[in-house]
Amino acid sequence: MFCVAVCDDEKTVCQQIKSFLEPYCKKGEFEVHIFTSGEALYEAVSAGTRFDLIFLDIELKLMSGVAVGQKIREELCDEEVHIVFISGKTEYAMELFAIRPLHFLTKPFTRKQIIEVLEKAMRLSIRYQDTFEFKIDQTYHKIRYGEIWYFESKARKISLHTENEEYLFYGKLNQVEDATGHHFLRIHQSYLVNPQFIACYEYHQVHLLNSRTLPISESCRKQVKQQLLRKWSDL
């Protein structure tokens, strides 16, 4: 079931987005939940309701959309849900960077824009289930891309880092890069990083959500900057 939340204190906006999504709901395996306050949305997520996509208004009356997004990412540690901010203003880009939104829509928006964002979220959610396979001794392992923070090259071996584990196996980073396609960002001859776990970017390094800092090599700086800017170009 693909679950969507729409949070806006203007009920007409909520109903408009829901009506745009109605054709998908009729196909089944798809549902839309309406919230008219940030508090209500946060309470639902805190209680265990899991959403694949959230359309979140920034200018909510009490708890702002930015505050809700920060709580979802930082307090509830939910990195999987795709957040799309909606607003009548356009000057929020820097505030939203740390929340890693999928998109930013300005009011009024069109049905085409909503559907494009929805389909992008659905593609990414499917892609999130892709796994990386590797072998340690005689045992084969599979780990979802969405759980891998980064790969590190160590001599003839690769170190795969998740939030709490490290796996060491024989291989070359170039082979890993080819196998994973565009899911990971090459920042150094020794590092491939999952962009969803990058909390902060600087000219010579990136900071991950777990406070780990990884270097950006001089040869990769231009490419890293371009790819990260492209990732956030919709803001």
TrEMBL record:
Keyword Transcription: no
GO molecular function: DNA binding; phosphorelay response regulator activity
Chain positions with 4-aspartylphosphate modification: 57
Signal peptide coordinates: none
Keywords from the named record: Phosphoprotein
Source superkingdom: Bacteria
A matching Pfam family: LytTR
Gene3D superfamilies xref list: 3.40.50.2300, LytTr DNA-binding domain
Response regulatory domain ranges (all copies): 3-122
Record domain HTH LytTR-type: where: 132-230
Record function comment: May play the central regulatory role in sporulation. It may be an element of the effector pathway responsible for the activation of sporulation genes in response to nutritional stress. Spo0A may act in concert with spo0H (a sigma factor) to control the expression of some genes that are critical to the sporulation process.
Protein known as: Stage 0 sporulation protein A homolog
